[in-house]
Amino acid sequence: MLPDIYYWGDQPGWDFYATVTIGAVVLTPIVEELFWRGYVQTALSRVFGGFGRLLAQPLLFGAIHMRSFGGFVPVFVLGLITGTWRWRRRTLVPVILAHMVINVLSCTAQWPQWLDFMRIRVTTDYIGEMSQLAKPADYDPNADACIEYETALRLLVQMPRELNAVRGGYPADWSEATATGLLLGWAAHLQANRG
Predict the structure, then answer these.
(1) Exposed, middle or buried, 61 (CB in 10 Å: 0-12/13-18/19+)?
(2) pLDDT tens across 79-120, in order?
(3) What is the DSSP string of the chain?
(4) Residue 56: which of 68, 46, 70 has the closest Cα?
């Protein structure tokens, strides 16, 4: 687990990290093992056969869990060992228990960082300050570029009268006759102004 996944400026407290730990130690091993070693390995055995399924399942398992190549190898080896155990012993209970132990060790290693994260309190809005610093000196929040865009549109194309009549409404509010008339009028207008 990477610390940045579990860090926000408005840091959660004990309840969040306790929930993460319980989910990682109890729920995740059961769901992952039932899915990867139960369902995926069984499905791959129909496609690849004996040895192929033992390699295909940990390759997929490692690829899903990979954060770097150094992270791929241990996960691949774990998938290979647990997949072989499942294939030879036909049971998932020891595999699930081993996965739980690994996740307990991982969460135990993360708790010192999580305790530090719980102490961090952001007191400065750096994004707000950066936004203020990035504004020009003569910035006026009431100034809007809408007028410039409308002027540019008028200079580029003279708008048909029919479109001006319904311009303030939404196209979804137009009747079918209005929409058809506008499209035909716009097409005729463009055709006339093309030459």
Answers:
(1) buried
(2) 889 888 888 888 899 999 998 999 999 889 988 888 887 777
(3) --GGGG--SS---HHHHHHHHHIIIIIHHHHHHIIIIIIIHHHHHHHH-HHHHHHHHHHHHHHHH-SSHHHHHHHHHHHHHHHHHHHHH---HHHHHHHHHHHHHHHHHHHHHHHHHHH----S-HHHHHHHHHS-TT--TT--THHHHHHHHHHH-PPPHHHHHHTTS-GGGS-HHHHHHHHHHHHHHHHHHH-
(4) 46
How far apart are alpha carbons 175 and 170 in whole angstroms? 11
Contacts of 2 by beta carbon, 8 Å cutoff, 6+ apart: 67
**Amino acid letter for position 9:** G
Q: Which residue has the tokens 């499942």?
A: 86
